[in-house]
Each structure stands twice: as C-alpha cells, then as structure tokens.
C-alpha cells in the first residue's frame, strides 16, 4: 500500500522542489496534494462537515501558499484516479481550482469560458440529481459569491474591446452564451425555486420547519447543498441586480430573508457583509436613507466588535475593504439625511475620525462638495456592469466604464436636487412656526417658488418602502395651515446605557492596570 502523508505536514520532496523550479506541470501531483484530495474525498463521502470545513478553509489555503503561490493546482485529470473518477468530486475540485486561479493569477479567456462550463455542469448536477452530501456553509456561500464575481469579472473583461486580439474576438463570437446575464440569473433563480427555500422560511415562522436553528444543515441524514445554495442565491440575486442598477428587483429578491434577525446569512462573515452592503447600497440609491443608515450602523458595529477573530481568515482583507466602503456610504447617507441619532456612538466616532472634515464640506453643496460626493461614491459603489454583448464592428471601443458613469450621473443628479433643500432645512431648524411670506423673504424667492421648494422637500424626504408604504427620512418635518408653516422636529431618544457600559470597561481596565503594579 502506498505511504500516505498528512496533507498539511507532508515533507517537501525533491520532486516538489523540482516542480517549482522548472515551472508548472499540470499533471504533476505532489504527495501532499494527493493526500489532501484523498482525505477530502473520504470526508465528503462520510458527510463529515467539520473535517471538510477544516480542509477547505485551512489546508487548501496552506497548500496554496506553500506550493501554488503563483501557479495553478494540478489539473483535475491528474487527481481524478485518486478519487475513483467521481464526477461530483471532480466538479467541486475544478470549482476550487478556478477560484484559486482567479485569486492568484490572471485567467485567460479560454479559462473564463471553461470555468463557466464547470459551473453549468456542477449546478446541473445539484439541480437535477440527488446530491447526497453535506458541505460547509462557507463553501456553499463561496460558490455563489465566486459565481457572481466571475460573471462581473467577465463582463468587465469583455467590455475592454480596444486591445483584444483576433483570436480573443473569435472566441467571444464562438462562445457568446458564456456568462450570459440570463444564464446567470436563471441558475440563481432555479436554485431558489428548486430548493423551496421561500416556503421553508415561511414554514419556519410558523414553527413547522427548522432551517435557521440548524444553520441550514440536515441532521437527519439528508443533504444541505440545494437548500443552502437556494438561500445564498437570494443574496446572489440581490448582488447581480445591484451590478445591473436594478435596485428595486434586487431588494425584492431578498425579501424572504428577515435581515432584522440572525439567520443563515449571518453564519458566514462574507455572506453577512455582502448582504448588508448591497442591501444598504440599494436603499441609498432608492432614497431610503434611514433604512440604509440603520443597517450600515449595525454591520459596522458588528465588524468593529468581531474583526479581531477573523485576522487569520482568507477573507480578512475583504472584510476590511468592505468595512471602509460602508463607512464611506454611511458618510454619504448622513450628509443627505442628517439622522445621526440612528448611529451608535462607537460607529459615529470612527466615522468622524475618517470623514468628519469631508462631511462638513459635503453639507455646503458647492462644487467642492460635489467632488467629494463623486469621490466617495466612486470608492464605495459596486463595480457596475454592462451585460450586453459587445459590438464587433471596427473601430473597437472600451465600454467597461459606461454603467458606472450612468449610475454616478444619476447619483450626482440626486445630490444636486438636495442642494436646494439644505437652505430650507436650515430655516426650519430655527423656527417652530413661520409664515410663508417671511420664509420666502429670507430665502429671496417669491411665494409660488417657495411652495414648489417645500413640495420638493416633502417629496425628497419621503420614499416608498418594500411594502409600498410611504416612509419619512426627514429629521425636520412640517405642515402648512393657513399660510403658516408648523415645524415638527423629531426628538432624539437619549441613550445612557452605551455611555455607562464604556465607562465601566474603562474603569475595569484602570483597576487591572493598578493590580499589576507591585507596591514596594
């Protein structure tokens, strides 16, 4: 019987070293990789979720760092005979193979197309056959996340037509269905429908199902794969629709998940952040600023409290990047809708540190303010895509920035309309009642123009929520009775609890420091 090594601690053989010196050989399988594949296959067959998670999350990263820093993993053909040529395992291995390739190297057009084919084969198996296995939520989330990311990456790549070679253009013409937007949306929607996840979540509310309580895992010997992929596909659909600029449809796709509660989406940090980031961004673009502020605040507070536990995670850099982007989006929301009372003191102090000066300038609504709005939006927005196929007519042009420019233009147009309202808000904050003619006089406009401005203020500080109800974003509201404006200011609820808790923690720290001091 061949000697097997532990997949993390296998000694680097002479051959492994030679393999790295002489370049990449797709058919060369180091002993540690063979051992990794054999063990992973066995754990998947035995439905040992804990071991699969350890190997997927830790061993795969360790081997990638050690042996495949700037080369792909061995090809699926080289490892398939170690796993009885199992079709499903080979598809899963290729899914990891392509993900590693995208993360460490730059994929060719042919590899992008091959990755699409692999996803199609894998998803067809999950949708149309009985898949008797349990996989960790982290892996299932990564599948959906990577599927959407590769779609976004392909659209950006395809839109840069200027420097494409004749061979690349021929391939794009030949494989025009690869990463087609309808194909991507259809797979995600098929997972939602085939898994019955919407009905499962409804029945869970009535106590007839257990999904969230078990984190989506099936402890009665069944499989969690289809159900959890269906669940995460709702987040995937939100993300795709945000990339397309269709925020209303994106939020509709997420409706079955109650984001005011803990759920399976919070069991994986990447899924938790992606859900709230895209949910908050969609609400921002639909002028539902209060909802966006609430959710960004909760998420930023959660990251602030837990990020130290993710320092060794492969997702750590992504967590920090999304954290910074959400602070930028929160700065935009609070500048357009100054509802600081909705923000926790910890988040507020971090926000002031990062963007305090810029937020003060954004309130002025002059040319400099618009430059800052442009800068923060460009930094924090998703990478919008144009999903349509390119024109192959000469001259070839790049159109990868078109979707972003359109969304930026719409956003800045909204900001410009807010400029008119900042003056009204300033006066309304000073008075409890003021006559129309007096306010018109102060603002140096006639009464009919003032009425138009006040109607605009009402319109811009109200939005329609997902249930079709009109909600207010206004920190200062008013009504008009007999040509008198009556101001209604929402009073912030004073919260003393947070302040006392912080002081208690500080005091405990001081006491601990004093205890360490040895008196002579």
TrEMBL record:
Q: Which UniProt keywords apply?
A: Cytoplasm, Initiation factor, Protein biosynthesis
Q: Cellular component per GO?
A: eukaryotic 43S preinitiation complex; eukaryotic 48S preinitiation complex; eukaryotic translation initiation factor 3 complex
Indicate whether Transit peptide appears among the record's keywords. Answer: no
Pfam short name (any one)? Paf67
One record GO biological process: formation of cytoplasmic translation initiation complex
Q: Where in the cell is it found?
A: Cytoplasm
InterPro entries, alphabetically? Answer: eIF3l, PCI_dom
Q: Which terms in the Gene Ontology molecular function aspect does this entry carry?
A: translation initiation factor activity
The PCI domain sits at 295-494
**Functional note:** Component of the eukaryotic translation initiation factor 3 (eIF-3) complex, which is involved in protein synthesis of a specialized repertoire of mRNAs and, together with other initiation factors, stimulates binding of mRNA and methionyl-tRNAi to the 40S ribosome. The eIF-3 complex specifically targets and initiates translation of a subset of mRNAs involved in cell proliferation.
Quaternary structure?
Component of the eukaryotic translation initiation factor 3 (eIF-3) complex.
The family line of this record is: Belongs to the eIF-3 subunit L family.
Q: What name appears for this protein in its UniProt entry?
A: Eukaryotic translation initiation factor 3 subunit L
The organism encoding this protein is Gossypium raimondii (Peruvian cotton)
């Amino acid at each position: 019987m061949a000697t097997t090594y532990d997949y993390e601690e296998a000694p680097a053989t002479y051959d492994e070293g030679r393999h790295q010196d002489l370049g990449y050989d797709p058919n060369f399988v180091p002993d540690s990789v063979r051992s990794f594949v054999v063990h992973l296959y066995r754990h998947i067959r035995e439905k040992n979720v804990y071991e699969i998670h350890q190997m997927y999350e830790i061993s795969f990263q360790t081997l990638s760092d050690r042996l495949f820093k700037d080369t792909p993993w061995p090809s699926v053909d080289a490892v398939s005979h170690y796993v009885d040529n199992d079709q499903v395992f080979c598809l899963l291995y290729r899914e990891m193979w392509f993900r590693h390739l995208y993360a460490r190297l730059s994929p060719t057009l042919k590899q992008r197309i091959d990755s699409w084919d692999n996803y199609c084969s894998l998803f067809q198996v999950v949708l149309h056959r009985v898949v008797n296995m349990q996989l960790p939520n982290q892996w299932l989330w990564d599948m959906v996340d990577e599927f959407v990311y590769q779609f976004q990456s392909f659209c950006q790549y395809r839109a840069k037509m200027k420097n494409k070679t004749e061979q690349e253009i021929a391939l794009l013409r030949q494989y025009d269905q690869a990463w087609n937007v309808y194909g991507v949306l259809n797979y995600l929607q098929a997972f939602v429908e085939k898994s019955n996840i919407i009905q499962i979540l409804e029945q869970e509310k009535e106590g007839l199902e257990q999904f969230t309580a078990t984190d989506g895992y099936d402890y009665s010997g069944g499989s969690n794969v289809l159900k959890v992929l269906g669940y995460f596909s709702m987040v995937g659909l939100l993300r795709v629709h945000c990339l397309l600029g269709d925020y209303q449809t994106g939020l509709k796709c997420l409706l079955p998940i109650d984001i005011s509660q803990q759920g399976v989406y919070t069991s994986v940090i990447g899924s938790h952040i992606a859900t709230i980031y895209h949910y908050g961004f969609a609400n921002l673009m639909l002028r539902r600023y209060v909802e966006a502020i609430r959710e960004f605040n909760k998420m930023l507070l959660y990251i602030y409290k837990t990020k130290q536990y993710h320092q060794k995670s492969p997702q750590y850099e992504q967590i920090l990047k999304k954290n910074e982007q959400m602070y930028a989006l929160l700065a935009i929301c609070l500048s357009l809708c100054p509802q600081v009372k909705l923000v926790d003191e910890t988040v507020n102090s971090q926000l002031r540190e990062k963007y305090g000066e810029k937020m003060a300038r954004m309130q002025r609504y002059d040319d400099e303010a618009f430059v800052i709005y442009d800068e923060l939006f460009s930094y924090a927005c998703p990478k919008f895509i144009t999903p349509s196929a390119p024109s192959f007519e000469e001259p070839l042009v790049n159109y990868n920035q078109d979707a972003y420019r359109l969304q930026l233009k719409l956003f800045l147009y909204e900001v410009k309309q807010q400029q008119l309202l900042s003056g009204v808000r300033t006066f309304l904050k000073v008075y409890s009642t003021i006559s129309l003619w007096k306010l018109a006089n102060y603002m140096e406009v006639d009464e009919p123009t003032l009425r138009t401005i006040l109607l605009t203020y009402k319109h811009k500080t109200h939005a329609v929520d997902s249930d079709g109800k009109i909600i207010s974003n206004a920190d200062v509201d008013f009504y008009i009775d007999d040509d008198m404006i009556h101001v209604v200011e929402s009073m912030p609820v004073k919260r003393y609890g947070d302040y006392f808790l912080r002081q208690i923690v500080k005091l405990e720290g001081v006491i601990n420091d004093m205890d360490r001091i040895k008196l002579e």
